[in-house]
């Protein structure tokens, strides 16, 4: 089973992620078990899927995380997707999920991000990292979470900017 | 000047360690080229035509003598004994070894300097007025705000992978010397009727391929809210800026596509959620920043007496009087003046400075200007706090060291990017063009008589040489592998900012001195007593210039 980094530990990934549907999102058959569905599928099948506790939603970089609205408070997992590691929209989407929508579940980065982005991603509220590149050395990647231990600005991890904490 | 505390040092130490690790992984083949690219850029490292280029931030242009000496040492130990002052007030090394860059950054960190976010798709070094704190027309000293914004933007976790680079400039004076209208965000410090400090906010200005003058999206933003408001602008840009085409990815394209009003509304909506958060500045936070930019230990001087002394010497020494006229500016404190050291003698690439010259400048700063120096976006250096009664002595020392060319603001004070000699993006060389023009106008008296005339040269459309805002702008273009130069007229980076208009078909390198001479001749023949080149151009228009240049050059 593939692995991921979550809350600083390496664990097995028990979730399955569905691709975006080519056709109508309403027609997608969502399998049993822990499934991360595309935002479009969630929005189209929300009433049926809401009854399940094992459904997560992934948001692509060109999608608006705010469309989850109040649902964010009840979902166990939301993923933000990197189509390429240079596409930095997921950083903002993650903050919106945490700071605007009050999402408290597992916030997962998925896709083509790289290890050197972990520290900043975690500052934006991401707490789980599932690399597309399965050759990534997760032990090493974990170290990147600690690239910095002090920061100037407010973040999800530390809402008080340094200028208010300086003696 | 800002002084690091243990937090700043720790953060920078961690950055150097991070980049050292990234460089080692790259050299060991564990980090792919494409992945290392943005990481090295965000530490200032480009891979250029001939060698890497390392760009070091000079936050809003301020340097102390310890930093100057360290820059000199690095030029000597890791480079070919010189460096370059860029058009964004930064310092560039042209010949470092990739393997040694982490060591260079470690040496810089010791003197509170770095290359963090000096390149790449992130918030770049904040630029400002080189005469901040000393200019008589200053409304509010911009430096404390520059520092607050520098800290906010440094290692910002959300905005390190923007659609494109992002430049912020701040002006606190009546006359804009920071070119805020051609930045991604331009901030003008203002006071309202109650005397409270705030910002006029411009967005979407910029040079490059599509030059645009920025739009005002807010006339008055109280100072307390600057960080949350910037965060709102950046978030709107990060989420909505184009990522499909790097030539359309700057914020100016987004602002234009949405329309400035709609863009302003989107920012306003986003800001409503951020307003009042912990990033709001309390008065003690602003006071703390201001405490680093207190006045140096000015003496109480008799201005009239000092001025009389200067005038008397000027009467005896014509060269000194010309230098006073061009290179010395008024200061708001009686008995003091601000002096620009010219890095533009003929025959030296504009903005280049050697290790020993940097050390000479440090000596001069210590002796004459409280140990501080500023870099300028015109690629010169400034001693901002010189006693008038020491100007003559400074002039003699500066002349000996080669910094006293009395050409500041004149035709030979050319703004020039590194161009095809160094830059891998260039279409054409720019330094030899600058030199050829300087040689054409080697008669200092002649140049002096021409008065203010900005000539700016870029080696390609990226416009690092700010050619769109030169009174005369020169742009290197490539035609079937040959280098040509397009000439434009009428640009202006100051308060009444305007973009230059293309004169006509491009020229060969050899024609350029003559072309500029023809432009100058048209000015000389048409000017009235009070007119500068730009005034004459604005009055008579582009046609007479065009006719002359193409009649002769054609
Ligand atoms: S304007 Fe072009 S040639 Fe000149 S430094 Fe910039 S990118 Fe290079």
Automatic annotation (TrEMBL), chain A:
One protein family per Pfam:
DUF934
| Superkingdom of the source species | Bacteria
Q: Kindly give the InterPro entries that the UniProt entry links to this protein.
A: UCP030820
UniProt name for this protein: DUF934 domain-containing protein
UniProtKB/TrEMBL annotation, chain B:
Per UniProt, residues of the Nitrite/Sulfite reductase ferredoxin-like domain are: 53-111, 349-400
The record's section on Pfam families has: NIR_SIR (PF01077), NIR_SIR_ferr (PF03460)
GO terms of molecular function: sulfite reductase (ferredoxin) activity
What's the Enzyme Commission number for this chain?
Answer: 1.8.7.1
InterPro entries documented for this protein:
NIR_SIR_4Fe-4S (IPR051329), NiRdtase/SiRdtase_haem-b_fer (IPR005117), Nit/Sulf_reduc_fer-like_dom_sf (IPR036136), NO2/SO3_Rdtase_4Fe4S_dom (IPR006067), NO2/SO3_Rdtase_4Fe4S_sf (IPR045854)
What SUPFAM superfamilies does UniProt report for this protein, alphabetically?
A: Nitrite and sulphite reductase 4Fe-4S domain-like, Nitrite/Sulfite reductase N-terminal domain-like
Q: Source organism's superkingdom?
A: Bacteria
Q: Which UniProt keywords are listed?
A: 4Fe-4S, Heme, Iron, Iron-sulfur, Metal-binding, Oxidoreductase
Domain (Nitrite/sulphite reductase 4Fe-4S): residue spans on this chain = 119-273, 411-549
* Protein's name in the database: Nitrite/sulfite reductase
Organism for this UniProt entry: Gilvimarinus algae
